[in-house]
Structures are given as C-alpha cells and as structure tokens.
Amino acid sequence: MERLERIYLMEKLLRSRRVVPADLFISRLEVSRATFKRDLEFLRSRMNVPVVWDADAGGYRIDSDLPESELPGLWFNAEEALALLTMHQLLGEIGEGMLEPHVAPIARRLEKILGSRGHAAGQVRDRIRLLQMARRPVNAAQFGMLAQALLERRRLLVRHFNRGTGDTLERVLSPQRLVYYRDNWYLDAWCHLREGVRSFAVDAIQQASQLQESSVDVASDELDRELATGYGIFAGSNVRWADLRFSASRARWVSSEQWHPAQRSRVESDGSYRLELPFSDSRELLMDILKHGGEVEVLAPQSLRDEVARHLAQALARYGPSSGGGSSAEPGPP
Is the peptide bond before 105 cis (omega within 30 degrees of 0)? Predict the structure, then answer.
C-alpha cells in the first residue's frame, strides 16, 4: 500500500470513529509501528490534520477544538464516487414533479459532498461521467404501481410482453423485490400462472393494476436459490457449470472481471485463462460469451458448446456469398 493510500485510510478511520487505537491503525494499514509513527507525523505536519493522543480513551482522535481540515488532493475512492454520482444522476432524471420538494434538498446535499474535497461539483460532473448504454425507459406511473404493491404486499394483475416469444400474457403476480441490474429494472415475483418464481423486465410490463388479495411471500433464501444461484438475470434451480477458456491476449481483461460470485478461475501455463461458473438459463451467458468471438472456447457442457457453435454458424451464414450482403469475388475490369 502506497503512503498516499495509507494517509487516506488513516484520515477515513479518524473521521469514522471517535477514537482509533494504534493497534487498529497498524492492523488496517498493514505496516510496522515505526512506519505508522512516520505516517502519523506526515498526517499532522504535512496534511495539517489535528490528530491528538487521548490517554483516557487509549487512542488517537481529531481535536474538535481546532478548525476541521480536509486532506488536499485526495478524493473519494471508486466505490464512493460511483455511489455519489449515481445518486446525483438518478435524482437529476426525476426532474420536476411531486417529488421535487423532497428531492431538491437531497440534490443540494449531494452537490455539497461532491465539492467537499476542494473541487467544484460542476467540474466533478463534467470530468467524471456515468454512461448507461443499454438502458430501457420505464413508465414512471407503472413503476410507482409496482413499488406500491410490492411494499404494501398486494398482488398485481399485469400484461407482460415476452420478448423471446413475442407473446403478451396476462398474469397475476405476487411481487417480492425490485432489482436494478445492468442499467435496467426487474421485478422478482411469484407467478400464479406458472406457479413459480420468475423475473420480469419492468419495461416489458405493459399494464399493471393492484389487486385486493395479499401477496404470497417467498423467503429470501428461496428467492436466492431460484434467481441468484445461476448466471445473470435468467435463473433457475437446475444449475450447471460452464467451463470457458479465454486466449492469453483476452485473459488480460477477463481475469480481472467477476462474472459470478461463485466462479472458479486459473491461468494456464500457456497464458490462457480458465473460468468456471454456474448457470441455469444460457441466454445471458451466451451473449457474454459471443461478444468475445474467437477469443473464447466453451469446453463444457457440450450443450452450451453446441449452442455457441449454432449461433456462430448462423452469424457466419449472414456473411456468406448467398446472404445478399455482396460478393466476395474480386471486381472485374472496367
């Protein structure tokens, strides 16, 4: 851990606790006592943070009698920045409406926090961007209806468009939770038509009305078994394991990614990267495999390997001589 990172962590510990024992500093910073003493002196003398020793409490604290200071040149870490900017962006998208009087104070507070490290909030928003590339718009009134039924534990009568089949079906749902995943909203619910847990894209719910009947409640661990065990948003209890091998060049990217919390991985002697992960429905996994083209091979199971081969063959057929996309022959003389 570099010194600047340690100084940032020290300041964060001091501001999150009333008193911080020396042993806690040493443990969290993973340094010797001598290094901790040098970092503490740097924090006091170079960063002007008023850290004092409190003998009665047995630890270090920031002296509240002195003016509060901020570390110059240090900003939020990646997770904090993402959380703050996401909240700010979502509040901005709400715009004017019934919630505006409630949203405005929160937005002003976020502006203050974003600019609290010596940088103007406007500069932060201009220089750090959150891009949502595949977001599908959701009807605000529809979303409100779903959320109300969810929280009041009421059933819903919905008309849902199935993009896979092109069919629209009327269903009665017992909503369990709303999930924001890959820039889109999904409703996890007990489907009374299918008599099982299903996940529905909120933007594909064309109509919704709240019923008087109480929702069927599904335990959180059962929801996780059905929806969170496999890969992505398409889930189920019939879990299989995919074994993928990425080329050495693609491994430089993929080895830093988390595809699933339970994944297993290793780097082979030739530099290729093996990734094993659970899935129950192949649709989303197929999309993530195919985007890597010839840089990945499905080793198992055979059924998934066959699916990838079929999709690649269909794609190749679109570019063949008879596909209507033009001839691959060389042009003749003028």
Answer: no
Rounded to 5°, the CA angle 242-246-252 comes to 130
Residues 243-300 pLDDT 10s: 999 999 999 999 999 999 899 999 999 999 999 999 988 999 999 999 999 999 999 9
From residue 211, alpha-carbon distances to 99, 143, 148, 152 in Å are: 25, 16, 11, 11
How far is the C-alpha of 334 from the C-alpha of 329, rounded, in Å? 15
Please provide residue 265's backbone torsions phi and psi, each rounded to the nearest 5 degrees.
-150, 160
With beta carbons less than 8 A apart as the criterion, state whether 104 and 92 touch: no
Q: How far apart are CA 221 and CA 19, in angstroms?
A: 38
Of 34, 42, 32, 33, the residue nearest 3 (C-alpha): 42
User: How crowded is residue 332: how many other Cβ atoms within 10 Å of its Cβ?
Assistant: 5
Give the C-alpha separation, 229 to 226, whole Å.
Answer: 6
Write out the DSSP string of 32-62. -HHHHHHHHHHHHHTT---EEEETTTTEEEE
Question: For residue 257, what are the CA distances in angstroms to 73, 103, 253, 298, 301?
Answer: 29, 35, 7, 18, 22
Single out the residue of 265, 162, 166, 148 nearest to residue 210, CA to CA. 148
Angle 3-16/33-45 helices, nearest 10 degrees?
80
Give dist(CA 52, CA 24) in Å, integer: 16
DSSP H or E stretch at residue 156: strand 154-161
Give, in order, the Cα–Cα distances in Å from 272 to each of 247, 295, 323. 5, 10, 35
Identify whether the C-beta of residue 312 lies closer than 8 Å to the C-beta of residue 291.
no
Q: Count CB neighbours of 95 within 10 A.
A: 10
The model's pLDDT over 17-68, given as tens digits with 9 standing for 90+, comes to: 889 999 999 999 999 999 999 999 988 887 778 899 999 999 999 887 655 5
Q: Is the dihedral of CA 125, 131, 137, 140 positive or negative?
A: negative
- Asked whether 205 and 160 are in contact (CB, 8 A), the reply is yes
